[in-house]
Amino acid sequence: MLHRPTSLLALVAFTAALSVGLAHSRALAQTTGQAGSPKVALPATLAARTVTEWLDAFNSGDSARLGAYYRKWHLDRSLAAQMDRRRETGGFDLVSIERSEPRLLEFIVKERTSGNSAYGIIEVAAGDTTLTQSSLALIPPGKSATAFRIDAATRARVVEAAIAQLDTSYVFPEVATKMAAAARAHLKRGDYDAVTNGMTFAARLTDDFQDVSHDRHLRVNFSPAGIPDRRDGPPDPAMVERMRRQMESVNCGFVRSEQLPGNVGYLKFNFFADPDVCGPTASAAMNFLANTDALIVDLRENGGGSPAMVAYVSSYLFSERTHLNDLWTRRTNRTEEFWTRDVPGKAFGGSKPVYVLTSRNTFSGAEEFTYNLKNLKRATIIGETTGGGAHPVSGHKIDDRFAIGVPFARAINPISKTNWEGTGVEPDVKVPAADALATAQKLIGERSRP
């Protein structure tokens, strides 16, 4: 989820429909396989060998093999999430090759469990150690591979429409001007001429914009299912209810809330959902841990979310009303303040020790939570430097299949007067992410000794 101040319910009509096409645009590590179906003749290319390697690893159901594939190609993946995806899909069968070049393969796979088809792309970068692309998107019901195709007119239109949104809303106008010049130069030189797939073009534009802005929140998205029109006013009640059910099905991102030995609380959640929907879930988790003597908050896989939920969860960690963060919006030149608030149940309190676990995947709203607590000296941060994304994002439709997420505001911490954009949050105790929990437990144990 993106770090955005806009209410989840206010954006639900736009984001819920958009997610139909985008939720399946996951890293290619979520797909393929050939067993149990007719063999598809693969060309003798590096890209084809890489697809075969990935198919074999994923379909094996062997986490060690899949992990080795990720490490070989320097892919940043949650192995646990990919193994869940493997169990969900039953693996994939390769059914066709759509485009083949020495370092690029576009192909279609079929999910063994459901029979759904998906369009995949693998592109090997020069140097043969990383992948320029590794992605997969569901082919919408009733559509085919043609839903992914784009032409020169589409490329030109998307570039100009994306630039218009950046010119209007991007948090730094001078950077928006530079991004526009760079994208138009690429278009004029013919750098996009060979790109005929919408997923690839969205990825290329994202890279080109980020090369100038270094803003990891800025992203162009492609959905073969179509981009919904963003509506003003209240969202459709049926869609709101679907979103509520979706949040409930994943427990609002909360994975674990438990008491560890020594009366140590442990809380792990992987995104900050809108408190209008998920406040009760957050409260239940925090109330369960209220009587522990120390608290570990695990954000190593948390990608961000709602600033309102950041403030909501933080409110359980302070005894007095506390100023957490501000957001300044370019278009309105207004600053919104975020403070702790009254929350249901019993708070953990403002004196017992708190430890926040981070990784390089800790991003956006999760970074805000970490940065706020660090500056307020309310928590000890343990793990790796975080991802470095501090700009809230708003989604904008470009055309029927493309959209762009535009960072429109910037965080301003009331203590540091700046934020973590581009630098991330430095931990107090630097250790590999995998060692962060054990390190926190060790520190708590040392603290409790007489």
Could you explain how this protein is built, in words?
- The longest helix is centred in the middle third of the chain and has 18 residues, at 152-169.
- With 450 residues, the protein is of the alpha+beta class.
- A six-stranded mixed beta sheet has the order 7-8-9-12-13-17, with helices on both faces. The protein has a five-stranded antiparallel beta sheet with strand order 1-5-4-3-2, with helices on both faces.
- The protein folds into three domains: 26-146, Nuclear Transport Factor 2, Chain: A; 152-222, no CATH class; 250-389 and 424-448, 2-enoyl-CoA Hydratase, Chain A, domain 1 (Alpha-Beta Complex), CATH 3.90.226.
- The protein has helices at 8-22, 46-60, 63-72, 79-89, 152-169, 173-189, 198-213, 237-249, 275-288, 307-314, 365-375, 436-448; strands at 26-27, 92-101, 104-111, 117-124, 131-138, 219-222, 254-260, 264-269, 294-298, 323-329, 334-339, 354-358, 380-383, 393-397, 402-407, 409-412, 429-430.
Q: Which structural class fits the helix and strand makeup?
A: alpha+beta
Average pLDDT figure: 90
Strand count: 17
Strand content: 15-25%
- Rg to the nearest angstrom? 23 Å
- CATH homolog superfamily of the largest domain: 2-enoyl-CoA Hydratase, Chain A, domain 1
Under CATH, the topology of the largest domain is which? Answer: 2-enoyl-CoA Hydratase, Chain A, domain 1
Order of helices and strands: HEHHHEEEEHHHEHEEHEHEEEHEEEEEH
Strand order of the largest sheet: 7-8-9-12-13-17
Q: What is the distance, rounded to the nearest whole angstrom, between the alpha carbons of the first and last residues?
A: 43 Å
Poorly predicted runs are 1-37
The geometry reads as globular
